[in-house]
Amino acid sequence: MSATLAALPAARAADAARYAIAGVAPGVALEPASAEEAAAVVRECSQRGLALVPWGGGVALAHELAAPPRYDVALDLKHLHRITVFEPDDFTVTAQCGITVAALREALAARGQELPLEAAGAATATLGGVLAANASGARRLRFGSPRDRLLGARFVTGDGVLARTGGRVVKNVAGHAVHRLLVGSRGGLGVLLEASLKLLPEPPARALLVHGADAAALADASRWHEFARREPAALSVLAASRTVDPALATDAPFTVAIGWEGDPRWVEACVAWTRERLGAPAELRRDAQVPRLWQALADASEAPGARLTLASAHHSPAAIAELAHGDAFVFHAPSGRLEIWPEPGEAPARARAFAARGFAPTEARGLEDLPPAPPASVLALRARLADALDPEGALALGLRWRTGR
Prior knowledge:
single chain, alpha+beta, eight-stranded antiparallel sheet, Vanillyl-alcohol Oxidase, Chain A, domain 3, 27% helix, Uridine Diphospho-n-acetylenolpyruvylglucosamine Reductase, domain 3
């Protein structure tokens, strides 16, 4: 394959080795400077039978343990990084998907607003990558996933057609919500170029307490039931091996991070209430210091290695007290999301043990035959969707939509 495609000049080419997935580099890496150029590349790939992978910051792709069956072209969207429409009075923003999460946060914070999504590697992770992965962190239950915040999008179908879906403000959202189908598709249904999202005002006060815990403390269901009733912004449990920030380190086998945000007096009351029940924290961070720890919790979820993600209706650390021994894990209790890094060969047994306690596998990175393939009816619907948006199979990561793997 030549160093570029006919759709773009040679100046748009990049070093293909930087875009390797599980050690496999594409034949060509391209950096389009506009939506039209991106669409032209996808169109040419479709016509020539080439397999393409959209590329943001590469945060999740860098940890993939297996390359796609075909990988000819990497499409780096880093030059599509502008905020195109920002309406602070409407609490909405429209931005190109190559903008980094950190850059978008900084622009919104200047107007006292935030997009409440945490994703690993915010300095390099892009808005498009966060949407494609449906990535979120410890505050997912309180503020929703990327799918919940997305109002509309501009994207390229697998045959190179530029399309729009949804709207830029809440009152204009109409028609089929194709943009929400793209969230979590990992670039397998279309290439996200621009997204419109709902924002929130930054809370006037924040606090995050870090406590060490042993298995007996985790198993105290009555204690955690009190926390669930009071509804903290986040309540996450980490095994000691998942600690990625000194502020989250304790001498105990497990770390419990509990976050509160809102009215200053209410936050202070919650901090005092937490101290009464758990004792003095190993760390207490406030206000501007707290988002860095939200970020650390998100980074912990994107550690390298084979990872199994499970979901449940359990919102208490007590649910994992008897099962977490020996596993590296992160458990975001309010949203019932558990991520574990099992020892080699132990993933099926661990999945069965957690399933017996109401945890269903939802994603397996680098683990064969986990989670179970969806029912045939679901696979058939997914295949129809993939065939409609990517008729020639140009999107290399679309195979999972047709096979469930």
